[in-house]
Amino acid sequence: MSEPAFQDQYPDDYAHCYGCGRLHAEGHHLKSYWDGEETVCRYTPDPKYTGGFPGFLYGGMIASLIDCHGAGTAAAAKARQDGKPISRFVTASLKVDYLAPTPINTELEIRGKVVEIKGRKVIVDLVVFAAGTTCATGTVVMVQLKEQN
Ligand SMILES: CCCCCCCC/C=C\CCCCCCCC(=O)SCCNC(=O)CCNC(=O)[C@H](O)C(C)(C)COP(=O)(O)OP(=O)(O)OC[C@H]1O[C@@H](n2cnc3c(N)ncnc32)[C@H](O)[C@@H]1OP(=O)(O)O
């Protein structure tokens, strides 16, 4: 059996994020997994998240995908390195470059690559693909909650 999604391993008290918390009743419930040394999250946006014109996703949602998949990647990477269960990270910094319009009603693939793990801080590079096109890239700085360290 494959390992549960990173977000499904968050402790209950820290699983209420609108983007990825499994316990948020109306959230997006993003799910992230290992794919070799990278991580992957797949998500098909609903047209209600339309951006400036029909057919395309609004930038805030793209940032959310990068943010939440980045947090999950940081948590999983730290857990893998330390041989411990997944703990909860929060976003200290989020940078997004929008490279091409991102379609809705198309499955997006968000991939993460760990750049650095230093103490409670993990830096992750991310890419958002739609049908093979690179639509956005991002870098996040994630910090492990002190009480989870
Ligand atoms: C998820 C469940 C939450 C449950 C909460 C329970 C209570 C927990 C208590 C408190 C945390 C509250 C957080 C709530 C968040 C809700 C969830 C989101 O929506 S995430 C999106 C919004 N993100 C925030 O709202 C973070 C706000 N920022 C902070 O709370 C702090 O600034 C935090 C935790 C991110 C860092 O504070 P430090 O005092 O723990 O750690 P320092 O020593 O400042 O930083 C550690 C390392 O990270 C680097 N760093 C910190 N901020 C950076 C930045 N903006 N850019 C680059 N590097 C940064 C530092 O340079 C340091 O690195 P070097 O060890 O020196 O190499």
Automatic annotation (TrEMBL):
Pfam families attached to this UniProt entry: 4HBT
Subcellular location: Cell projection, Ruffle membrane; Cytoplasm; Membrane
GO BP: any one term: fatty acid metabolic process
Membrane-related topology note: Peripheral membrane protein
UniProt keyword list: Apoptosis, Cell membrane, Cell projection, Cytoplasm, Fatty acid metabolism, Hydrolase, Lipid metabolism, Membrane, Transit peptide, Transmembrane, Transmembrane helix
Highest taxon of the lineage: Bacteria
The protein's name: Acyl-coenzyme A thioesterase THEM4
UniProt source species: Desulfobulbus propionicus (strain ATCC 33891 / DSM 2032 / VKM B-1956 / 1pr3)
Phylogenetic placement of the source organism: Bacteria, Pseudomonadati, Thermodesulfobacteriota, Desulfobulbia, Desulfobulbales
